[in-house]
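testing teh design pipeline on a random one, pls ignore if ur not involved
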């Protein structure tokens, strides 16, 4: 693993904010009403008196608010936040300068209200009674949280994958509040291929007899369906190069074929392990809702119809679009389409493709190139 500069943010604490209490629930894009809503979040650094040194980090679909540091009682050797190499003193998102916040998305199962949360009308988990939400609804809950925390302006919104969709949505809904938008390994809308993989994952979950129309919280969870869904998804996060390098056709703890279905190849064992781990930490219904929200997302016309800001305006928002050469889930051609769309609408946009063989998940792997790119771009904001 590359050595990256900077220090850890140290021990951190997950916090919660509850809002949209009846009789003033959150009105979703579908028209459905939801409340109360609790959002889990973490912060790193210190918010200045003006409330304008904040950076919002938007996580990917199965991520959470634990982006950096470690919880009390954990050691340095234990797993830190998922972007710990990027967030901290002297790092790409320098907490000596910025107050960094990461909030768990609506519909998740990692502390924010989702289908596994208690429905106040019944006292039981929502299940499929949870209303369908969108990327826009996720962003609106983040905005309400930031208002509560006293954030007046964001120096940047940055995120990868589904987090990048949230970045684009922020730039559309609240352009006056966002100084820089940095979508990484993301897209303006899902291709048929991406929708197809999400549908396979959803069908795997719903075909599990333990799913029971989403009402499994008092019994066995749909573990096999959820594990298969994760296996399918995980293949899209890697690349052909990465899988050849990591696994090839090597066998797992054996020298010849078993001529059965126990799993001969290392890649089979790896995917089963990933599926099993996912079952232990994530909710099947959340997978259904979040993947559908990502499929619904379509910012093409809205980004293309943005009005260019006045020339020389201090409020002019800047974009940095980042892609990876081996990402076949959201390929570089989609990032270039985003750049072209933004340029046609008169936006200030920079673009960088990073050569890497790790596939879609490359933004989650420590890499000085991404760290230096983000640091340099933020420094250029002045």
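output:
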């Amino acid at each position: 693993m590359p050595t990256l500069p900077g220090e850890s943010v140290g021990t951190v604490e997950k916090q919660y904010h509850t809002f949209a209490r009846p009789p003033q629930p959150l009105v979703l894009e579908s028209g459905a009403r939801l409340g109360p809503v609790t959002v889990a979040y973490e912060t790193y650094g210190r918010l200045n008196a003006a409330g304008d040194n904040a950076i919002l980090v938007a996580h990917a679909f199965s991520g959470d608010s634990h982006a950096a540091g470690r919880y009390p009682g954990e050691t340095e050797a234990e797993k830190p936040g998922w972007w710990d190499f990027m967030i901290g003193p002297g790092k790409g998102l320098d907490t000596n300068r910025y107050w960094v916040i990461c909030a768990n998305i609506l519909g998740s199962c990692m502390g924010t209200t989702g289908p596994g949360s208690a429905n106040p009308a019944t006292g039981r988990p929502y299940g499929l009674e949870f209303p369908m939400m969108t990327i826009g609804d996720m962003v609106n809950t983040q905005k309400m949280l930031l208002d509560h925390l006293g954030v007046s302006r964001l120096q940047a919104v940055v995120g990868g994958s589904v987090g990048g969709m949230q970045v684009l949505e922020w730039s559309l809904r609240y352009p006056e509040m966002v100084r820089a938008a940095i979508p990484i390994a993301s897209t303006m809308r899902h291709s048929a291929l991406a929708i197809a993989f999400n549908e396979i994952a959803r069908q795997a979950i719903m075909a599990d007899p333990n799913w029971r129309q989403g009402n499994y919280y008092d019994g066995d969870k749909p573990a096999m369906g959820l594990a298969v869904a994760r296996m399918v998804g995980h293949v899209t996060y890697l690349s052909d190069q990465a899988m050849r390098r990591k696994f090839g056709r090597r066998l797992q703890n054996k020298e010849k074929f078993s001529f059965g279905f126990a799993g001969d190849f290392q890649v089979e064992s790896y995917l089963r392990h990933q599926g099993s781990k996912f079952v232990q930490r994530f909710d099947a219904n959340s997978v259904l809702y979040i993947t559908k929200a990502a499929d619904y997302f379509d910012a093409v016309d809205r980004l293309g119809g943005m009005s260019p800001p006045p020339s020389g305006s201090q409020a002019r928002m800047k974009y940095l679009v980042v892609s990876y050469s081996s990402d076949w889930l959201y390929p570089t051609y989609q990032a270039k389409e985003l750049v072209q769309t933004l340029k046609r609408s008169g936006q200030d946009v920079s673009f960088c493709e990073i050569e890497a063989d790790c596939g879609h998940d490359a933004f989650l792997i420590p890499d000085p190139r991404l760290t230096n790119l983000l640091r340099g771009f933020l420094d250029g904001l002045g």
